[in-house]
Amino acid sequence: MNVKWLYVGIGMLSFASFHQQDVQAAMLASHHVSVNLNTYVEKAPVIQVVSLIDERTGEEVELNLNEYGYWPGREMNIEGLKEYAASLASTIDTPMQNPKINQAGEITPGKNRVILSEQELVDSIVKLDFDEGQLILPIYETPPTVSENELKGIDEKVIGEYSSSFNPSVLGRSENIALSAKAIQDVVLGPGDRFSFNHVVGERTVERGYKEAKEIVNKQFVMGIGGGICQTSSTLFNAVDEAGLTIIERYTHSREIGYVPAGRDATVSWGGPDFRFENSLEKPIIIRTNIENGRITVTVLTYNG
């Protein structure tokens, strides 16, 4: 439908970019005048663009509110704004990472958790005044739960350990086990921190070095990228369980897998089953992995005493 917009000025009364019928009604009500509305000037709708500013970096993102139904006095497309906020958050949100320390004593600094409050952003956009052209993004940062100073002595005491064997001559599978074991190496969890295997290891893709190898799907062995990583997750599960940590999510394979006893496995799949647990102790823990001669060992350690 073609909508015509008016710019009309009479005395102290002016209307910019309003519907024809709205102008007529307002003039009649407020000024008791009549006007020939066949002689109006067409004007394009007001374009409302707001700059969303990241105070941390000074970077700005422009948002055209007209694309979300913006017009003074009218409701905006809230669901569309929510989708926009979620899309923007996916480029900003960063998980917290505690600092790490390897067996040589070398420390890798941690990273703050960074979160864009999506609902707060949507609410702020909706409440914007017509003349406001900027909005500070509601971004919040949370520091690591474990400091670098707290890493001292974190690997003094073994509280859980488990080993499982694999055939090192099966190269694709062996490489996948090694890659996933490296991903969880030296991970530190503070009290109450939660671990997600899928989140920490990440998506298993060719670009990230994962190979094609056998995996179980619907009780059948099939070839898939990342086949073998379930041996890493299953070995981790048994070590974590021995350490007495709280298991949050675990699934078993649809058939026995051989490298751990029946029912003692933890199957994982990107976008599907995950293995998650929580450090339910009152002190930090660290995870160590070792692969040698066709054997993967996962160890959970903490302070001595």
Describe this structure in words.
The chain is of the alpha+beta class and 305 residues long. The chain has 3 domains: 1-45; 49-147, Roll (Ubiquitin-like (UB roll)); 153-302, no CATH class. It is built from 6 helices and 18 strands. The strands form 7 sheets. A 4-stranded antiparallel sheet has the order 10-18-17-11. A 3-stranded mixed sheet has the order 4-3-8, with no helix packed on it. It has a 3-stranded antiparallel sheet with strand order 12-16-15. It is elongated. The model is unreliable at 1-20, 30-35 and 39-44 (pLDDT under 50).
Task: Tell me the total number of β-strands.
Answer: 18
What share of residues is helical? 10-25%
| Mean pLDDT rating | 85
Low-confidence stretches: 1-20, 30-35, 39-44
What share of residues are in beta strands?
25-35%
Order the strands across the largest sheet as they lie in space: 10-18-17-11
Discrete helix count: 6
Radius of gyration: 29 Å
> What's the number of structural domains?
3
- What distance lies between the first and last C-alpha atoms, to the nearest angstrom? 76 Å
Q: What class, by secondary structure content? A: alpha+beta
